[in-house]
Amino acid sequence: MDQEHLDKLEQLEHDFDHALPEEVTRDVAYYRTILSNIIMIGGAPNEDWILIDTGLRRYKERILHACEERYGNKPPTAIILTHGHFDHTGSAKKLAEHWNVPIYIHEKEMDYVTGKKAYPPGDPTVGGGLVSLLSTLFPTKPEHLEGVVTALPDDGTLPHLKEWRYIETPGHTPGHISLFRESDRFLIAGGDAISTEKPESTWAMFFPIQHVYGPPAYFTQDWMAADKSVKTLAELEPDFVIAGHGLPMQGGFMKEELKKLADGFIDNAIPKHKRQ
Ligand SMILES: [Zn+2]
Ligand SMILES: [Zn+2]
Protein backbone atom coordinates (compact mmCIF):
# COMPACT_ATOMS: atom_id res chain seq x y z
CA MET A 1 0.00 0.00 0.00
CA ASP A 2 1.57 3.29 -1.04
CA GLN A 3 1.42 6.66 0.62
CA GLU A 4 -1.36 7.94 -1.59
CA HIS A 5 -3.61 5.05 -0.58
CA LEU A 6 -2.73 5.51 3.06
CA ASP A 7 -3.62 9.18 2.84
CA LYS A 8 -6.92 8.33 1.22
CA LEU A 9 -7.73 5.75 3.89
CA GLU A 10 -6.94 8.23 6.60
CA GLN A 11 -9.12 10.81 4.89
CA LEU A 12 -11.95 8.29 4.67
CA GLU A 13 -11.75 7.43 8.34
CA HIS A 14 -11.68 11.10 9.13
CA ASP A 15 -14.79 11.67 7.06
CA PHE A 16 -16.44 8.74 8.74
CA ASP A 17 -15.82 10.09 12.24
CA HIS A 18 -16.71 13.67 11.65
CA ALA A 19 -19.13 13.50 8.73
CA LEU A 20 -17.94 16.60 6.92
CA PRO A 21 -19.43 17.72 3.62
CA GLU A 22 -17.15 18.56 0.68
CA GLU A 23 -17.98 21.56 -1.47
CA VAL A 24 -17.87 20.98 -5.24
CA THR A 25 -19.01 24.44 -6.32
CA ARG A 26 -20.36 27.39 -4.35
CA ASP A 27 -23.79 25.85 -3.92
CA VAL A 28 -23.27 22.11 -4.42
CA ALA A 29 -21.71 19.90 -1.78
CA TYR A 30 -21.69 16.20 -1.06
CA TYR A 31 -21.01 13.84 1.78
CA ARG A 32 -19.78 10.35 1.13
CA THR A 33 -21.39 7.69 3.27
CA ILE A 34 -19.45 4.44 3.16
CA LEU A 35 -21.29 3.19 0.09
CA SER A 36 -22.91 6.19 -1.59
CA ASN A 37 -23.01 9.98 -1.81
CA ILE A 38 -25.64 12.36 -0.57
CA ILE A 39 -25.71 15.74 -2.30
CA MET A 40 -26.72 19.14 -0.94
CA ILE A 41 -27.82 21.91 -3.31
CA GLY A 42 -27.88 25.44 -1.90
CA GLY A 43 -25.26 27.98 -0.84
CA ALA A 44 -24.10 27.74 2.76
CA PRO A 45 -24.99 28.79 5.34
CA ASN A 46 -28.14 30.79 4.63
CA GLU A 47 -29.66 29.83 1.30
CA ASP A 48 -32.56 27.44 1.01
CA TRP A 49 -31.24 24.00 0.25
CA ILE A 50 -32.34 20.59 -0.98
CA LEU A 51 -30.98 17.17 -0.08
CA ILE A 52 -30.50 14.66 -2.90
CA ASP A 53 -30.53 11.02 -1.72
CA THR A 54 -30.11 9.78 1.81
CA GLY A 55 -27.49 7.00 1.93
CA LEU A 56 -27.93 3.79 3.87
CA ARG A 57 -30.08 3.09 6.86
CA ARG A 58 -28.46 3.97 10.15
CA TYR A 59 -26.81 7.00 8.56
CA LYS A 60 -29.36 9.50 9.83
CA GLU A 61 -27.11 10.90 12.55
CA ARG A 62 -24.03 11.18 10.34
CA ILE A 63 -26.03 12.77 7.53
CA LEU A 64 -27.56 15.23 9.98
CA HIS A 65 -24.09 16.04 11.25
CA ALA A 66 -22.78 16.68 7.73
CA CYS A 67 -25.79 18.87 6.88
CA GLU A 68 -25.51 20.83 10.13
CA GLU A 69 -21.84 21.46 9.46
CA ARG A 70 -22.91 23.27 6.32
CA TYR A 71 -26.31 24.80 7.11
CA GLY A 72 -26.47 24.92 10.91
CA ASN A 73 -29.96 24.14 12.12
CA LYS A 74 -31.63 25.18 8.87
CA PRO A 75 -33.51 22.16 7.51
CA PRO A 76 -33.70 21.49 3.76
CA THR A 77 -36.87 22.48 1.91
CA ALA A 78 -37.26 18.94 0.60
CA ILE A 79 -35.53 15.64 -0.05
CA ILE A 80 -35.33 14.43 -3.66
CA LEU A 81 -34.49 10.78 -4.36
CA THR A 82 -32.79 9.75 -7.60
CA HIS A 83 -34.29 6.26 -7.33
CA GLY A 84 -35.52 3.85 -4.71
CA HIS A 85 -32.54 1.58 -4.04
CA PHE A 86 -31.59 0.96 -0.41
CA ASP A 87 -28.22 2.72 -0.69
CA HIS A 88 -29.91 6.00 -1.71
CA THR A 89 -33.13 5.90 0.31
CA GLY A 90 -32.00 4.21 3.54
CA SER A 91 -32.28 7.20 5.86
CA ALA A 92 -34.99 9.05 3.89
CA LYS A 93 -37.88 8.39 6.21
CA LYS A 94 -36.05 9.21 9.41
CA LEU A 95 -34.58 12.42 7.98
CA ALA A 96 -37.92 13.53 6.52
CA GLU A 97 -39.58 12.98 9.87
CA HIS A 98 -36.78 14.73 11.73
CA TRP A 99 -36.99 17.82 9.52
CA ASN A 100 -40.69 17.52 8.73
CA VAL A 101 -40.07 17.93 4.99
CA PRO A 102 -41.53 16.18 1.92
CA ILE A 103 -39.69 13.53 -0.12
CA TYR A 104 -39.96 13.52 -3.92
CA ILE A 105 -39.28 10.69 -6.33
CA HIS A 106 -40.21 10.00 -9.96
CA GLU A 107 -43.66 8.54 -10.44
CA LYS A 108 -42.26 5.39 -12.10
CA GLU A 109 -40.28 4.68 -8.94
CA MET A 110 -43.21 5.23 -6.60
CA ASP A 111 -44.37 1.60 -6.31
CA TYR A 112 -40.90 0.57 -5.12
CA VAL A 113 -40.89 3.00 -2.21
CA THR A 114 -44.46 2.47 -1.08
CA GLY A 115 -44.39 -1.27 -0.53
CA LYS A 116 -46.13 -2.27 -3.76
CA LYS A 117 -43.20 -3.68 -5.75
CA ALA A 118 -39.76 -5.09 -4.96
CA TYR A 119 -36.71 -4.63 -7.16
CA PRO A 120 -35.32 -7.77 -8.75
CA PRO A 121 -32.59 -9.31 -6.60
CA GLY A 122 -28.95 -8.40 -7.28
CA ASP A 123 -27.38 -10.43 -10.07
CA PRO A 124 -24.09 -11.93 -8.88
CA THR A 125 -23.23 -13.20 -12.38
CA VAL A 126 -22.45 -9.75 -13.74
CA GLY A 127 -19.60 -7.43 -12.98
CA GLY A 128 -17.48 -9.73 -10.86
CA GLY A 129 -15.85 -8.85 -7.58
CA LEU A 130 -16.94 -9.16 -4.01
CA VAL A 131 -19.59 -6.45 -4.20
CA SER A 132 -21.38 -8.36 -6.97
CA LEU A 133 -21.40 -11.47 -4.80
CA LEU A 134 -22.56 -9.48 -1.81
CA SER A 135 -25.27 -7.89 -3.94
CA THR A 136 -27.44 -10.96 -3.41
CA LEU A 137 -27.49 -10.02 0.27
CA PHE A 138 -28.40 -6.39 -0.34
CA PRO A 139 -32.00 -5.62 0.55
CA THR A 140 -34.46 -5.40 -2.34
CA LYS A 141 -37.52 -5.21 -0.12
CA PRO A 142 -39.62 -2.15 -0.80
CA GLU A 143 -39.11 0.90 1.32
CA HIS A 144 -42.16 2.23 3.08
CA LEU A 145 -42.26 5.93 2.43
CA GLU A 146 -46.01 6.17 1.92
CA GLY A 147 -47.39 9.28 3.56
CA VAL A 148 -44.11 11.20 3.20
CA VAL A 149 -43.32 10.67 -0.50
CA THR A 150 -44.79 12.63 -3.42
CA ALA A 151 -44.31 12.14 -7.17
CA LEU A 152 -42.23 14.75 -8.98
CA PRO A 153 -44.03 16.92 -11.54
CA ASP A 154 -43.99 15.15 -14.91
CA ASP A 155 -42.59 18.10 -16.89
CA GLY A 156 -38.98 17.82 -15.74
CA THR A 157 -39.21 20.69 -13.26
CA LEU A 158 -38.01 20.20 -9.69
CA PRO A 159 -39.76 21.63 -6.66
CA HIS A 160 -37.70 24.43 -5.03
CA LEU A 161 -34.91 24.15 -7.62
CA LYS A 162 -35.76 26.68 -10.33
CA GLU A 163 -32.41 26.52 -12.15
CA TRP A 164 -32.39 22.74 -12.31
CA ARG A 165 -34.40 20.21 -14.25
CA TYR A 166 -34.54 16.48 -14.02
CA ILE A 167 -33.89 14.09 -16.84
CA GLU A 168 -35.36 10.62 -16.92
CA THR A 169 -32.47 8.16 -16.99
CA PRO A 170 -34.15 4.74 -16.78
CA GLY A 171 -32.35 1.43 -17.13
CA HIS A 172 -30.75 0.99 -13.75
CA THR A 173 -34.30 1.28 -12.39
CA PRO A 174 -37.47 2.33 -14.27
CA GLY A 175 -37.88 5.76 -12.67
CA HIS A 176 -34.24 6.75 -12.15
CA ILE A 177 -33.58 10.47 -12.60
CA SER A 178 -30.53 12.70 -13.06
CA LEU A 179 -30.45 16.44 -12.36
CA PHE A 180 -28.95 19.09 -14.63
CA ARG A 181 -28.30 22.83 -14.38
CA GLU A 182 -27.66 24.54 -17.70
CA SER A 183 -25.90 27.69 -16.37
CA ASP A 184 -22.76 25.85 -15.18
CA ARG A 185 -23.52 22.53 -16.92
CA PHE A 186 -23.64 20.70 -13.62
CA LEU A 187 -24.87 17.11 -13.82
CA ILE A 188 -25.98 15.03 -10.88
CA ALA A 189 -26.07 11.61 -12.52
CA GLY A 190 -27.95 10.07 -9.66
CA GLY A 191 -27.91 7.82 -8.28
CA ASP A 192 -26.64 5.19 -10.57
CA ALA A 193 -27.07 6.32 -14.21
CA ILE A 194 -23.28 6.37 -14.32
CA SER A 195 -20.64 5.94 -11.66
CA THR A 196 -17.22 7.51 -11.13
CA GLU A 197 -15.80 4.47 -9.38
CA LYS A 198 -15.72 0.92 -10.60
CA PRO A 199 -18.94 -0.24 -9.01
CA GLU A 200 -18.06 -3.89 -8.63
CA SER A 201 -14.71 -3.32 -6.97
CA THR A 202 -14.44 -3.41 -3.20
CA TRP A 203 -11.02 -1.86 -3.53
CA ALA A 204 -12.53 1.15 -5.29
CA MET A 205 -14.91 1.67 -2.39
CA PHE A 206 -11.92 2.67 -0.33
CA PHE A 207 -9.54 4.02 -2.95
CA PRO A 208 -11.65 5.45 -5.71
CA ILE A 209 -9.85 5.70 -9.02
CA GLN A 210 -11.54 8.29 -11.13
CA HIS A 211 -13.03 7.11 -14.37
CA VAL A 212 -16.54 7.24 -15.73
CA TYR A 213 -18.25 3.86 -15.61
CA GLY A 214 -21.68 2.50 -16.41
CA PRO A 215 -24.28 1.81 -13.73
CA PRO A 216 -23.62 -0.90 -11.12
CA ALA A 217 -24.19 -4.07 -13.13
CA TYR A 218 -25.60 -6.28 -10.41
CA PHE A 219 -28.66 -4.07 -9.95
CA THR A 220 -29.30 -2.76 -13.44
CA GLN A 221 -32.65 -3.92 -14.78
CA ASP A 222 -32.79 -2.81 -18.42
CA TRP A 223 -29.46 -2.48 -20.25
CA MET A 224 -30.84 -1.08 -23.49
CA ALA A 225 -32.58 1.72 -21.58
CA ALA A 226 -29.39 2.28 -19.56
CA ASP A 227 -27.45 2.67 -22.84
CA LYS A 228 -29.88 5.34 -24.04
CA SER A 229 -29.70 7.14 -20.70
CA VAL A 230 -25.90 7.31 -20.77
CA LYS A 231 -26.05 8.72 -24.31
CA THR A 232 -28.57 11.35 -23.15
CA LEU A 233 -26.23 12.38 -20.34
CA ALA A 234 -23.19 12.54 -22.64
CA GLU A 235 -25.12 14.78 -25.04
CA LEU A 236 -25.59 17.29 -22.24
CA GLU A 237 -21.80 17.81 -22.29
CA PRO A 238 -21.62 18.54 -18.57
CA ASP A 239 -18.69 20.45 -17.05
CA PHE A 240 -19.22 18.95 -13.58
CA VAL A 241 -20.43 15.47 -12.76
CA ILE A 242 -21.28 13.92 -9.47
CA ALA A 243 -22.77 10.45 -9.26
CA GLY A 244 -24.10 8.41 -6.39
CA HIS A 245 -20.87 6.43 -6.13
CA GLY A 246 -17.38 7.86 -6.51
CA LEU A 247 -15.83 11.30 -6.34
CA PRO A 248 -17.04 14.32 -8.32
CA MET A 249 -15.30 14.88 -11.66
CA GLN A 250 -14.92 17.86 -13.97
CA GLY A 251 -13.18 19.06 -17.09
CA GLY A 252 -11.84 17.54 -20.29
CA PHE A 253 -10.85 14.11 -19.02
CA MET A 254 -14.32 13.50 -17.56
CA LYS A 255 -15.97 14.67 -20.81
CA GLU A 256 -13.82 12.30 -22.83
CA GLU A 257 -14.56 9.41 -20.47
CA LEU A 258 -18.30 10.08 -20.57
CA LYS A 259 -18.27 10.22 -24.36
CA LYS A 260 -16.24 7.00 -24.53
CA LEU A 261 -18.67 5.30 -22.18
CA ALA A 262 -21.66 6.45 -24.26
CA ASP A 263 -20.09 5.45 -27.60
CA GLY A 264 -18.95 2.04 -26.43
CA PHE A 265 -21.63 1.23 -23.88
CA ILE A 266 -22.95 -1.89 -25.58
CA ASP A 267 -19.46 -3.30 -26.15
CA ASN A 268 -17.87 -2.30 -22.88
CA ALA A 269 -20.36 -1.59 -20.13
CA ILE A 270 -23.06 -4.18 -20.77
CA PRO A 271 -22.07 -7.59 -19.37
CA LYS A 272 -21.48 -9.93 -22.33
CA HIS A 273 -24.24 -12.43 -21.57
CA LYS A 274 -26.77 -9.62 -21.14
CA ARG A 275 -26.41 -8.21 -24.68
CA GLN A 276 -29.50 -9.01 -26.72
ZN1 LIG B 1 -29.12 1.92 -7.58
ZN1 LIG C 1 -26.32 3.01 -5.79
Automatic annotation (TrEMBL):
<dbReference type="InterPro" id="IPR036866">
    <property type="entry name" value="RibonucZ/Hydroxyglut_hydro"/>
</dbReference>
<dbReference type="Pfam" id="PF00753">
    <property type="entry name" value="Lactamase_B"/>
</dbReference>
<feature type="domain" description="Metallo-beta-lactamase">
    <location>
        <begin position="35"/>
        <end position="245"/>
    </location>
</feature>
<dbReference type="InterPro" id="IPR001279">
    <property type="entry name" value="Metallo-B-lactamas"/>
</dbReference>
<dbReference type="InterPro" id="IPR050855">
    <property type="entry name" value="NDM-1-like"/>
</dbReference>
<protein>
    <submittedName>
        <fullName>Metallo-beta-lactamase family protein</fullName>
    </submittedName>
</protein>
